[in-house]
Amino acid sequence: EAEVAQSPRYKITEKSQAVAFWCDPISGHATLYWYRQILGQGPELLVQFQDESVVDDSQLPKDRFSAERLKGVDSTLKIQPAELGDSAMYLCASSAKLAGGPISIGTGELFFGEGSRLTVL
Amino acid sequence: QKEVEQDPGPLSVPEGAIVSLNCTYSNSAFQYFMWYRQYSRKGPELLMYTYSSGNKEDGRFTAQVDKSSKYISLFIRDSQPSDSATYLCAMSVVQGGKLIFGQGTELSVKP
């Protein structure tokens, strides 16, 4: 069964260090999302890519976070320097490109990876 | 005020009970409504996807959307211990657009 792959699953780092997360979406999915989920809260969108282009990064703290999807396939999310408040689960999701027309089951459906849990000490 | 409000629970029910999970929202532009299930230390998985108002049923799960009241619900019939998870509501203005999630409700179904 196709799935979104993320690594590492767990990362412990000290504040001010750099950290990077990697995501490989489901093959053929044009849209890729990075969400951050703080414990006890719902996921919040950090950045959305359509192919290699950023569609929405309005909630990405650009002074310390960066994201890229150079070839429109896999993606990397980087944090430098990490802060205590960055401790969270970082979720990657992908979805197929919408073809337009009436809604159908699965259209626009996001498939999430298992996430990368970051602890900043 | 958050755009999407969801009672965080936790909610504990006996096996076989009917479970009702709810979300309210403030943005009347939301048109696409989803329920995700998230097991501990896992990513969310889509349970139900509905457009605009109305009901949708899938096995033991029924999703309801009342846009006039800005209120959505997920009902689980004959709940099972395997239904124990956090349930997240999510909604978007456009199809495939930015999803706004609720806080999640933690459900525990006791044997």
Report on this structure.
The complex is a heterodimer of chains A (121) and B (111). Chain A contains no helices and eleven strands. By secondary structure, chain A is mainly beta. Chain A is globular, with a radius of gyration of 14 Å. Chain A has strands spanning 5-7, 10-13, 19-24, 31-37, 44-50, 53-56, 65-68, 75-79, 88-95, 111-112, 116-120. The model of chain B has no long low-confidence stretch (mean pLDDT 93). Chain B is mainly β. In chain B, the strands form two sheets. In chain B, strands 2, 4, 5, 9, 10 and 11 form a six-stranded mixed beta sheet that branches. In chain B, 0% of the residues lie in helices and 55% in strands. At the A-B interface, β5, β9 and β10 of A face β5 and β9 of B.
Please tag this protein with its features.
heterodimer, A: 121 residues, mainly beta, seven-stranded mixed sheet, four-stranded antiparallel sheet, 11 strands, B: 111 residues, six-stranded mixed sheet, five-stranded antiparallel sheet, 55% strand, globular
Task: Describe this structure in a few short sentences.
The complex is a heterodimer of chains A (121) and B (111). By secondary structure, chain A is mostly beta strands. In chain A, 0% of the residues lie in helices and 45% in strands.
Instruction: Note the overall shape of chain B.
Output: globular
Whole-angstrom Rg of chain B: 13 Å
Number of helical runs of chain A? 0
Question: What oligomeric state best describes the polypeptide chains here?
Answer: heterodimer
Q: Strand fraction band of chain B?
A: over 45%
Major β-sheet profile of chain B: 6 strands, mixed
Characterize the biggest β-sheet of chain A.
7 strands, mixed
Which structural class do the helices and strands of chain B define? Answer: mainly beta
Amount of helix of chain B: under 10%
Uncertain ranges of chain B: none
What is the helix fraction of residues of chain A, given as a range?
A: under 10%
Count the E strands of chain B: 11
Q: pLDDT under 50 segments of chain A (min length 5)?
A: 101-106
Largest interface: A-B, 26 and 25 residues
pLDDT averaged residue by residue of chain B: 93
How much beta of chain A, percentage-wise? Answer: over 45%
Distance between the termini of chain A: 36 Å
The secondary structure category of chain A is: mainly beta
Distance between the termini of chain B: 37 Å
| Total beta strand runs of chain A | 11
